[in-house]
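$ ./design --mode recover --in tokens.txt
reading tokens...
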């Protein structure tokens, strides 16, 4: 049994039960998405070294984003747990 649900809504909302039992496919196309796909194809065609460099930069950005989120979480945790003067907490100053 196969059933297809089609909607014109840009962001349809389904219940968690429905999403667990189905596969939702988003066929929307954006200008930015097409530009990124075209750029990736041009880079792949023109230079393998540029593609590898782009991949390395994207990995570094992802790593830095994770690190930033972790530091942000640690900072908020230390700020909320701090008692007294903020400048007296050396661990908090090191996080900053």
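writing sequence...
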């Amino acid at each position: 049994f196969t059933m297809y649900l089609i909607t014109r809504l840009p962001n349809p909302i389904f219940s968690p039960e429905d999403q667990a039992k189905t596969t939702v496919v988003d066929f929307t196309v954006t200008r930015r998405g097409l530009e990124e796909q075209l750029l990736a194809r041009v880079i792949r065609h023109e230079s393998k070294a540029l593609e590898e460099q782009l991949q390395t930069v994207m990995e570094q950005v992802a790593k830095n984003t994770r690190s930033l989120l972790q530091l942000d979480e640690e900072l908020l945790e230390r700020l909320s747990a701090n008692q007294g003067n903020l400048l007296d907490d050396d661990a908090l100053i090191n996080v900053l």
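exit 0
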